[in-house]
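ESCALATION

Customer reports they have been waiting on this structure for their group meeting. Please prioritize. Original submission:
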Amino acid sequence: MLILSLAMNFLASENQPLHSSTSPDEDLIKQILLTHDPDGRHLDSELLLRAMENIMSYAKSEVSDAHDGAIAKSGICNVEVVGSEETLGHTIYKVSHGILFNYSMGGNPHAKAMVLFDKLRHYKWDAKAVLVLSAFATNYGEFWLIIQLYPCNPLAASIALLKQLPKDLCLLKHLFKVLNVLMKMIVDLTKCIIEFEELPVNHVILDCEAIGTTNSQIYMATYWIIRSALICSSQIKDLRAMENVQVHVLSLQSSHHMLNSVVYFYRFY
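Update from on-call: job pushed to the front of the queue and completed.
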């Protein structure tokens, strides 16, 4: 318990707790919580995240029949949204549509993230993050399918032409290098949230400051995952410079280290 208390005190000193009037994140957290209204619906976030990782992994691989069996082994067919009348596919479609709509509307990245928070108000924190990542992975996977197939497939070539996709991927090495770094951070941070949500926190006696600090980390981590996924989507769409993505890498690194510390000390306790 002493170690856990020290960990929480460290987190509180590095990231001011929710109740602190001087916290720059306080207003943001309040906005996020206004969109959070869980109704008991549930999905296997870990399994769905694994499927998302498969898509990201296959995206730059050569297309082959071996991938058919790999997708079957991922168990994605067994994921369903319990407590909701919507199928998983329809839910991901709505989120994906929201991402595309956000891209077309332009404007403030924060406002775009809050739109997705509102769409996912009935889900737990881990599910919010994984559903947005799954929607991003779907769009990202479609992009790479076109890139891979257009040299030998007339349909893919026509779509690539209409989308004005570059034929020389060497020009995009920097873009994908930064994207890969960011997506790895996003996935690692999401795994921390999933693991934390599965911990029996309700059975651990903590003071109010520790609870407030820990919850604040969950809220902010989910926010930066969603916002970073939006940034990645916009970069894939317009293939511009990556300054915004690099900034989000640094933000996620900070959130990941803090949340990973919380999960570690809870598990140790």
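Sent to customer with the following note: Residues 2-6+36-268 form one domain.
Escalation resolved.
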